[in-house]
Fold each of these.
Amino acid sequence: MRKTTRFKQLLHSPELEFLLEAHNGISARIGEEAGFRGLWASGLCLSAQFGVRDSNEASWTQVLEMLEFMADATSVPILLDGDTGYGNFNNMRRLVRKLEQRGIAAVCIEDKLFPKTNSFLRGETQPLADPEEFCGKIRAGKEAQRDPDFCVVARVEALIAGWGLGEALRRAEAYVEAGADAILIHSARSTADEVLAFQREWDGRAPVVIVPTKYYATPTDVFRDAGFSIAIWANHMMRASIAAMQATAAEVASSQNLLRVEDRVVPVAEVFRLQGADELKQAEKRYLPRTAARTRAVVLAASRGAELGELTEERPKALVRVRGKPLLEHIVDAYNGVGVKDITVVRGYRKEAFDLVGLRYVDNDEYADTGELWSLKLALDEARGADQTLVVSYGDVLFNRFLVQALTETEGDLAVVVDSQWREGSNHERWADYVACTEPDSRRAFYRTIGLRRVDHAVPEAERHGEWTGFLKVAPSALPRVRELVDELLADPARRKAMVSDLLNALVDQGEQVQVVYVAGHWLDVDSLADIERAGSFA
Ligand code: SPV
Ligand code: MG
């Protein structure tokens, strides 16, 4: 249902309805969340939030801009306090058109002179508009509207300005005659007597709206019994926030510390919620390409690397220096180079030696009795709740950025990088994770989806299609499955030393598709002193 229609229904509902004041997007949203079925865009409060007076100091287009944010932030109708219509009948016509365009359901105009003054500031001295001129303005507004349910509420200021009930009734009568959808009868008295007297005499000729700011002590049932259409709580969101801001500002100023205010302010998470941060997160998943920014790297670096002898006495292999900086720093640079800055390092041996900042560290204190898969599990536990793509690699593997890029750009939810040129370059006899795939690397393979069949040092030479580089990609959709399987594997005490390759084989055995991205070189596994020398030129 259109907001205009909903507002019209509020006006004509047999119940007493309520509008809450709002003055910007967030206050409007809070009002709607509290259950209000409509909002009052108060002129006083819109001015106040700009830090100016309620004397048309903010231009009407500045008001309009704010209204657009308010309408966008909510689904309930908004009644604009349109002051005097910001000019004559002609300004009123344009105002109505613009309000309709911005999704505002209705406007209230008051029979005073531009620039107006707030009714509670020397109200008795304020001149009223000529009723005939004001009727022309109402007619112009009503004839300008395109949506048949857009409403114009005519506000009678006769009681504020010290005229009697008779003048108020005469004006109200004329305004309804001119086409007003409702009358707002305003009073600055501390009791409701005036508006109640008006309501009795008026006798339901059109819906009547009230603003009990000054007669706030009147029980709401009195308004209900009198048959008013809508009561407007006209400025309480603004006044509440001023009180809160003053208290907070004073506290922070005097204590020069945030400790005492922290519990009195909402957490930033609440700000994000009100802004709809969740929706954006969902939308990003649907519309953004899988960028590196949504990738988290997990670097497994818990083991010592005893094969490097005394080089790894003081520090783990990942911190052995190559070309003046630790291996890990080269790895971090490579990840950063493709935009991956969220990096989790699982450390174990000599964990205190890790001093690179800006990384997340996860400790595998049982590194001596556990394997890589244990480390991976710890990293997965740490990443619980995250919805990024994980790229897993090793703390002793140097690589070109291209490798990470190729991996993150593949379609597959699970993917590994396989070096199809494993025979060349490196030491033939060394320990390696050989890979059997659904198809060898070839020009044709480039256009096909290649799957992993097995990764194992024991893959017979005739079946080897390459060597696994240690790179594994896990997309968010595959994470639950991977977690489940890791937990299952590690539940068996005999498998505490399981490796990531065991996970890959288990995935394949269970029918999961693990996609293979072939590369030719572009990486280096540092397993020996000779590798360290090679690493120097690789880096
Ligand atoms: C407003 O909220 O701006 C109003 C109501 O117009 S009053 O301040 O009572 O005039
Ligand atoms: Mg006002």
Amino acid sequence: MSVRSPTVREGQLPAVALPDGRASDTESAMKPLRVDIITIFPDYFREAFDYGIIRRACAAGLIDIQAHDLRLWTSDRHHVVDDRPFGGGDGMVLKPEPIFAAVESLTGANRRESIAAGKRVVLLSPQGKPFTQSLASEFAKCEQLVLICGRYEGVDERVAEALASDEVSIGDYVLSGGEPAALVVIDATARLLPGALGSETSAADESFSDGLLDCPQYTRPTDFESLSVPDVLLTGNHAGIARWRREAAAEKTKRNRPDLLK
Ligand code: 6GU
């Protein structure tokens, strides 16, 4: 039987009906997505994965996240990870040697070309390609993700040139370091792992998976300080509700994200 289904991760088996009618235990048989974060601030991540869907994904063995101190891979007495930029300029640049050593010890590879299929080595930097829902889905199919947190002053370019499989940015603004971006990438990726959300389908009809923003949602009370809920949502007319939701999503996209409609 083939196991190449887009929702089945590398090295993992899909649910199989056994001859006696029991389903095999898919989720507990799955190897977790291994995420290694390389950072000069490992404590930044101490409680970051203790909440909500990520906490459940960790507890269920869908993902295994570890933050590593870059200084572990220095060899000098003072554990120096940065140095002054050649050519002059402000700020310090992260040195290549500890980063290459860290990636080699975590993946077995010290060049992009030798990274095994199913592994991604991601440099987080404002110079990267945009992080998107589609890149999150690619990451969710991997067996290992290594996230290198840059500092805003910079990372020696040889990391991007020769080591990282991907250089990724989370948006057009400058963060003081890649650490918040690592949280964003891990969150968006973890919730796409099979079994991380309540139902397997709920990731399919949300913002961006169809190129539009999500439709507005309302809950009780129907009137709140003279702000009311659209009548159609109270009718039970499912076709009418579906049409309203499509139109409201398109309208909201046009207003807030016209770029998505081009
Ligand atoms: Cl990934 N890193 C930093 N330092 N700044 C950013 C970013 C990443 N993405 C957007 N701004």
